């Protein structure tokens, strides 16, 4: 039913790159191709190569380079008069904005990308832009608003036999089910995503699916199986240079160990993930790792007043980013640890 997964963000002369190519390899080839396109005066090819530079840089956690690259790609695409290439560049910018915690900006860029793709007749770019909008709403916890869009995109991906997008949609919907307590449904969808990704040779999609499976299994107390799946996924993340995915894998390992009561090990995992997220400028991951670290240190005997102050700070941080579900997690942590809110300090 599904063909081999492809990477449509690798365009032009780079379209032969595998979805599983290491990001350092992609970056090196894309930088060289961009130089050649600029020497030859080919704006469209420069736009394609610039997009690959932007995406490889973003996934490697090099956000400053990614920002420069997607904007340069957009300018080259505009000079070439290609709205499809413009859409891909703006999609990359919107995805980067979401990664950096600028969710309102992400929505604006991704909506613009969808419009450009529609005008340019690029069905795949439009699908990616809409998927980005759906994912942005999902990580904010606005499930009611984006649930229908996720389901629609899943149906479209299944109809076209697009493995990579089917896997993405399944994982997104599964995550919403997991977060609302429908563990059986979530597990079945994560497992289907992993199976499709394996059949389509989509190593990245499978690594994310294994992380989801591990999460649900650990909630059920299957710690050993969960840790084994995370170790398997980590191998893929390291081989491909998936810096962000690796940090989230380490954060999830902390979650699994915390649920098992293995607090010293959990603390080490959360601390490592926190450093990784800070290095790549990813505030959502940083806040989630901080939350795990605060909870773990409380279990290890840290003063409750200090813990309460940290949770209050996290609540404000997550609210500022716009992550409603994560903010609810702080409330759950307060209840779990028997901590109330910190009273507001008087001014002056």
Automatic annotation (TrEMBL):
Keywords: Coiled coil. The keyword Coiled coil applies. It comes from the Bacteria. The keyword Phosphoprotein does not apply. SUPFAM superfamilies: TPR-like. Gene3D superfamilies: Tetratricopeptide repeat domain. It holds the Pfam family TPR_12. PANTHER family: HTH-TYPE TRANSCRIPTIONAL REGULATOR RV0890C-RELATED, REGULATOR-RELATED. This is MalT-like TPR region domain-containing protein. The lineage of its organism: Bacteria, Bacillati, Actinomycetota, Actinomycetes, Kitasatosporales.
């Amino acid at each position: 039913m599904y063909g081999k997964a492809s990477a449509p963000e690798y365009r032009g002369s780079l379209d032969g790159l595998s979805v599983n190519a290491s990001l350092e390899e992609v970056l090196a080839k894309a930088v060289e191709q961009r130089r050649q396109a600029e020497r030859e005066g080919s704006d469209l090819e420069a736009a394609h190569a610039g997009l690959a530079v932007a995406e490889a840089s973003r996934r490697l956690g090099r956000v400053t380079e990614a920002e420069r690259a997607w904007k340069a790609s957009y300018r080259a695409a505009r000079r070439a008069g290609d709205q499809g290439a413009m859409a891909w560049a703006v999609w990359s910018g919107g995805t980067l904005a979401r990664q950096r915690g600028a969710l309102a900006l992400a929505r604006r860029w991704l909506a613009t990308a969808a419009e450009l793709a529609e005008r340019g007749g690029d069905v795949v770019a439009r699908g990616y832009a809409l998927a980005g909008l759906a994912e942005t709403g999902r990580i904010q916890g606005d499930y009611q608003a984006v649930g229908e869009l996720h389901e629609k995109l899943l149906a479209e991906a299944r109809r076209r036999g697009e493995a990579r997008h089917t896997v993405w949609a399944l994982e997104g919907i599964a995550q919403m089910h997991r977060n609302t307590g429908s563990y059986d449904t979530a597990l079945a969808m994560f497992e289907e995503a992993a199976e499709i990704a394996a059949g389509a040779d989509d190593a990245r999609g499978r690594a994310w699916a294994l992380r989801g499976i591990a999460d649900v299994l650990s909630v059920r107390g299957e710690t050993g199986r969960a840790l084994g799946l995370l170790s398997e996924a980590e191998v893929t993340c390291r081989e491909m240079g998936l810096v962000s995915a690796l940090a989230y894998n380490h954060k999830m390992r902390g979650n699994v160990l915390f649920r098992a009561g293995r607090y010293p090990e959990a603390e080490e995992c959360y601390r490592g993930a926190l450093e990784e997220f800070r290095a790549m400028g990813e505030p959502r991951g940083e806040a989630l790792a901080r939350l795990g670290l605060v909870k773990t240190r409380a279990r290890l005997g840290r003063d409750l007043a200090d813990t309460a102050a940290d949770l209050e700070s996290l609540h404000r941080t997550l609210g500022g980013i716009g992550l409603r579900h994560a903010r609810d997690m702080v409330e759950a942590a307060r209840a779990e640890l028997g901590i109330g809110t910190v009273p507001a300090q008087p001014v002056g």
